[in-house]
Amino acid sequence: MPDKYFDFIIHGGDYNPDQWIKTKEIWDEDMRLMKLSHVNSATIGIFSWAILEPEEGVYNFGWLDEIMDKAAENGISVILATPSGARPAWMAKKYPEVLRVEESGIRNEYGVRHNHCLTSPIYREKVRNINRKLAERYKNHPALKMWHISNEYSGECHCPLCQQAFRDWIKEYYHNSLDELNDKWWNGFWAHQIDSWDEISSPKFRGENHVSALKLCWKRFVTDSHISFLENEIAPLREITPDIPVTTNMMRMYDGINYQKMAEHLDIISWDNYPAWGTGDYGYVSSETAFVHDTFRSMKEGKPFFMMESTPSIVNWFDINKIPAPGTQTLGAVQAVAYGADSVQYFQWRKARGGHEKYHGAVVDHCGHENNRVFREITKTGEVLEKLGKVTGGRSEAKAAIICDWENIWATKYFCGYNNKHRDYEKECVKWYAPFHKRGITADVISLDADFDKYDVIVAPFLYMLKNDTEEKIIRFVEKGGRFVTTYLFGCVDTDDRCYLGGFPANRLKDVFGVYCEETDSIPESFDRKATYKGKEYSVNHICDVIHTTGAKVLGEYKTDFYAGEPSVTVNDYGKGKAYYVAFRNDGELADDICRDIIGEADIRTDVNFEIPTELTVRKRGDYIFIMNFSDSDKEIVLDKKYKDVLSDSEISGAITIKSLGYSVIE
Length: 667
Ligand code: GLA
Ligand code: ZN
Prior knowledge:
Blueprint: E1 10-15, H1 25-36, E2 41-44, H2 49-52, H3 62-73, E3 77-81, H4 89-94, H5 121-138, E4 144-148, H6 160-173, H7 178-184, H8 212-240, E5 246-247, E6 249-251, H9 259-262, E7 270-272, H10 282-298, E8 305-309, H11 328-338, E9 341-346, H12 373-386, E10 400-403, H13 406-414, H14 425-438, E11 443-446, E12 457-460, H15 470-479, E13 483-487, H16 509-513, E14 515-522, E15 530-533, E16 536-539, E17 543-549, E18 553-557, E19 567-574, E20 577-582, H17 590-602, E21 616-621, E22 624-629, E23 635-638, E24 643-645, E25 650-652, E26 655-658, E27 663-666
Parallel strand pairs: 1-2, 1-9, 2-3, 3-4, 4-5, 6-7, 7-8, 8-9, 10-11, 10-12, 12-13, 13-20
Antiparallel strand pairs: 14-17, 15-16, 18-19, 19-20, 21-22, 22-27, 23-26, 24-25
The structure holds alpha-D-galactopyranose (GLA) and zinc ion.
């Protein structure tokens, strides 16, 4: 599949014409309003199964034919969904096995959505069947441009079918050897030896929930179940429409599915972006959002992704749904494109009259017309996006990477010990990403399976669990001249959450970093503990390793507690590279100060040749440089030479002002 499917940025969103089937004049009005707001795409049919197949084997495609034709006539690209996210009531009544069994062991009743068993052969067959019908019917339709598989896959099922599938999965994972399983799970502890595969079941509150290796296996199994469910959905589409790309919309850092693994099965990565602008902390939220964009961009080695959903204004599911400052929406759209999105899409095009999401923001409000602020802002966004079409397909080159590994998202939550309250793995990753983001340096966000060799600097915060080849990969990376930065609780366990013997970090990593960890301390929030880096003092927050150097150079030391005077930050020359150990967590400036120095030493250049003032973010994608201001005041930036201002199609140079919540795109 190519890097680029469109020569323009897809602008649109979830569209539910089936909810308005009794007032079809609204469909024509939708077409008018889409064109007016520079919307060029609609995602249709996400939750339409009950209207597509009102009775088992009885199909009703008439309305969809009509809408597909209207879309084609009006130049609207359709992203057609498969409807597996919510099933018709008749199906649940006739085949109760399609409904999900929660951890309690009780089968859910019909209701809500995403409420299906992932294993049920009947459900899989029904899904394959409806998907085949859709593909056959629309395979040659000019409006069909992409498949949107299901919707936000999530959750897990604990039914007997899933239990059996889990046992089969485990049996294969441990090579059909109970001995291996008992050893890897360290089942001698609390008399947990297993004598037969049928003694295994999913982790549960009222059952086994203290074996972290079981919990890891369950997450891996749930991931694989989703993947095989996805493959089952895709099979008829691939067969009938081999040239139409498939995607499924993912949810930020959702920990229920290893997205880094699922990504391999998709042509295009897409994700639903709902930043918490309502907190008012635009600086943090914009950098966290950039981090998530880069996480998804990195899943297919930098290939552009889709921002499949975002809100035109507010959502309805925060406790308090504050309207973001006017301009935030357009700036958020520009940010998505800057960070690699080839689409800006919304949930939702038109507000529903009833149902759970009727107060969720939409391009078209209940008023039904274009005379409101949100519609105007979306129109503005559409105009901007139309001028940025040239960027589609464009990539950003990264010399730096942050490791944020989905399996570590799980592993760092499951072990019991040290600071059980403050783990925050993903937040730690955002923290170490921010210094690159702030300096206009493109950083990839990668898993442990990624290729390390193409980077100059890799930062791996709180890299607690290692995969079989991680040690070798780190050694090779540093030997060849890379700079590898890690922090506390590094290299403690293998993929079964079994501790490495011989001290932390694992095996030869002690030589690479020139340190070993003697003890790990946890710091209550009311305690004032300090450590230094290059003479500057920082708070020790929540956790720290007491380390012992065996060759590393000391860059800082603890100032308090019985380990005062012991090293807190070290660097070791190893091969042609350097290995940094940051032994304590600091929630202030430490990450920024260390990264600043490493960026300087490694001579990683920013994406641009001009100075980036604090509070402005800059990102280069293809030939375009995006300058964004997420702060609440106007900021000046001085360009190094003449550029073309892409949005006004004029020349600019020298000092320019980027308004608060403003942006500029130059070439
Ligand atoms: C998710 C879903 C949508 C909708 C939005 C609301 O992203 O995919 O169907 O529920 O949330 O924000
Ligand atoms: Zn099930």
